[in-house]
Amino acid sequence: MPEVNPSAAAACLRRFQEYGDTEDLAQYVRLSGGDTARYEAAVRLLEPVFDPLGHGEYPRYGDLDRQRMRGYEAEIRSIAGWMAASEKADLSGAGTALLGLLDAKS
Amino acid sequence: MPSARTQLSPVAVDRIDFVNTSAGAITGFPAITSGNLNTPGPYNNPTTNGVKHGLQVHFHLDRGTSSALTPRREIQRTSTGGSVVQKNPPDRPAPPGGGAATPGGFDGTQIGPDGPASHEILRPSADKIVVADVPGFPAVPPVNFPATYRAHFTVTVAAGTTDVARIKYDVLINKTSASDVPNTENRSVVTEKEDLVRGRCLK
User: Fold this and answer.
1) Chain A closest CA to B184's CA: distance in Å?
2) Contacting residues of B for A53, CB less than 8 Å apart
3) Predicted pLDDT of residue A104
4) For A19-36, b where at least 16 C-beta lie within 10 A, e where not — what string?
5) Can you give the pTM of this predicted structure?
6) Do residues B84 and B144 lie in contact, with contact meaning Cβ atoms separated by under 8 Å?
7) What value of ipTM does the predicted structure carry?
């Protein structure tokens, strides 16, 4: 199990919020002692968001598997919150929209 | 003789400028994770090897105000990174019990929504609305070369439920290696501009 390293973890989170690379997100979760398997599963469920975002396109919110997302709501809510806190308009907008989707269904 | 639609529409567009160089571009768009909405044209990131293409579509109104217009963008994109092919919209699998799959992507028949997001829209004056975009790859790992991005885009501006004007264009990117700068291909080309109120093509 990797050692928890809060300062390195914070740097990874800042990089994710700057560039939107999900590898930085995974590294952040690892270095902060999170459940990497569950977060990786959550990122896979968010592929309709991250694939278009990674191409400079608009997320396909309609393609999200809302039923399966319920099983990872805590992780997805965390990821959406980190996105929403970004200073980059595309990432923060997608995070805010995701949080709205989560709130709408609950 | 003007059509009924011409007489009724309080909003009309008489010019669409497609800006894919710094000439004529406007500023005021916020920062995004990769590329810059304020500086159209080819974009290469030497750190990540990312490659993108920025552009702005300027709709000029000769009637009504830009606040009355809402833009809608649609996409058919296929990208490749090494052997990995990604499509937006994706291929739709065959329905259970029979039927054929529906292809997505650049050569497919499906058309997917592509925003635009609010941070990609500016209304610099009452007679202009601008929709910006920077499609492509934020990063390209060495194993993912050659990286290609091909997309058809349509941007329509509407006043309520009435479509007022439309532009269609393609974005084509091909970066064969990290050192392929300027890129083998990195361009955008307009295929159609239409004034839907008066039913005519625009220059």
Assistant:
1) 19
2) 33
3) 87
4) bbbbebbbbbbbbeebee
5) 0.93
6) yes
7) 0.92
